[in-house]
Amino acid sequence: MIPLRFLLPNLVTLLAVCAGVTAIRLGIDGRYQLAVGAVILAALLDGIDGRLARLLKGTSRFGAELDSLADFVNFGVVPAMLVYLWSLHALGNLGWVVALALVIACALRLARFNVMLDDEDKPDWHKAFFVGIPAPAGALLAISPMFLSFLGVVESGAYIAPGVLVWVALVAVGMISRLPTFSGKDIAGRIPREWVLPLLAGLVLSFVLLIAFPWHMMLLAVLAYVASLPYAWKSWRKHAAREAEMEEASMGGEAPAP
Which residues contact 232 (CB under 8 A, 6 or more apart)? Predict the structure, then answer.
């Protein structure tokens, strides 16, 4: 008998896959706003399933493998198809090659992430960072030019296809790069009492603005994430330099070998 708590997180993961694959159908039908909304829903569900598994103590190897496969579909295949249907098709084979590059980069990124989970020797401060742009963030970055169309800044994706091609290629490189990015796992579980009301007010205001101005807020979130990349790199170097100094000091304090 398998406890029900092991099934619920996997059910959320499968719902995320349904949302992602449905986005492809919506993109084929030309309903790009609903398609992007389905990708965002898949990203939200992806953030829920792991936390739900840990909360219910229902983590399993099967769930981890299913989550990885779901991420490949939702954040590799789906955004590549959407951005190709919306814009890159205007560039013919070159556009398709870049779409494939995004899919391949996502697969490699997820494979590297799974392998790095087995590394038990890495310092604790490494948990605050990802290596490369994570798959959900990469998917949202790849489809972010579509927000410009939704806001009326550009007429169509074909109109800015060369720029979209360069942008998607950069996102693919960022996913497989060694660029450190913030993971958010180091955020404390408790906050000072005086921050409770301002934080609640800020979250409610952000939620209201997201409903009223969804594409403005999504574009702002993408710009904020891109702006955070240099700070993540500087923070990584700072931690690495401190660790190197500590290792050097510990080695200097040892007695020389006979």
Answer: 129, 179, 180, 181, 182
Q: In Å, what is the CA distance from 47 to each residue of 174, 236, 249? A: 21, 24, 40
Q: Would residue 119 be called left, alpha or beta, if left means φ above 0 and alpha means ψ between -120 and 50 degrees? A: beta
In angstroms, the CA 168 to CA 144 distance is: 10
Q: What residues pair up with 129 in beta bridges, in sequence order?
A: 182
| DSSP letter (8 states) at residue 180 | E
Report yes or no: 154 and 84 within 8 Å, Cβ to Cβ.
Answer: no
Cα–Cα distance, 70 to 20 (Å, whole number):
9
Question: How would CATH label the architecture of 4-185+206-235?
Answer: Up-down Bundle (1.20)
Tens of pLDDT along 31-62? Answer: 999 999 999 999 999 888 878 877 877 777 88
> Does residue 49 contact residue 67 with C-beta atoms inside 8 Å?
yes
The better pLDDT of the pair 91, 155 is held by 91
Q: pTM higher than 0.90 for the full model?
A: no
d(CA 195, CA 191): 7
